[in-house]
């Protein structure tokens, strides 16, 4: 099967283009963004490590997002024990924010439950 350089190039360039602000590529490589036909095999080969690195970073970001979702659904006092710690690669500032919100919800729920057993006349039981 013959390698279609244009398709391979477009796949790599699309990946690079999305995250180009984070890359420090030589301008010659970035110039080919506007002209896929100017891509040489050498240029494509030079960009392949960046694609691999970016795909790995994308997967890490996906898992950080998933961690936020898990924390949001784990809004109980017991779930605090199973949370990620700051040294975990999937821990993020957003995760910490979601944990704080989940803690506030759990605390509020706990207070409401205690309050349900109280009244002004009889006091709390």
Helices and strands in order:
Layout (H helix, E strand, L loop, with lengths): L4 H14 L8 H5 L9 H33 L19 H24 L1 E2 L3 E2 L1
Antiparallel strand pairs: 1-2
Characterize the structure shown.
- By secondary structure, this protein is mostly helical.
- It has four helices and two strands; from the N terminus they run ααααββ.
- The chain has helices at residues 5-18, 27-31, 41-73, 93-116; strands spanning 118-119, 123-124.
- It has a two-stranded antiparallel ribbon.
- Strand 1 and strand 2 form a beta hairpin.
- The protein is rod-shaped, with a radius of gyration of 25 Å.
- The termini are far apart.
- The model has no long low-confidence stretch (mean pLDDT 76).
Structural class: mainly alpha
- Average pLDDT figure: 76
Distance between the termini: 78 Å
Looking at the structure, what is the overall shape?
rod-shaped
Biggest sheet statistics: 2 strands, antiparallel
Descriptive key words:
two-stranded antiparallel ribbon; mainly alpha; 125 residues
Question: Could you write a compact summary of the structure shown?
Answer:
With 125 residues, the protein is mainly α. 61% of the residues lie in helices and 3% in strands.
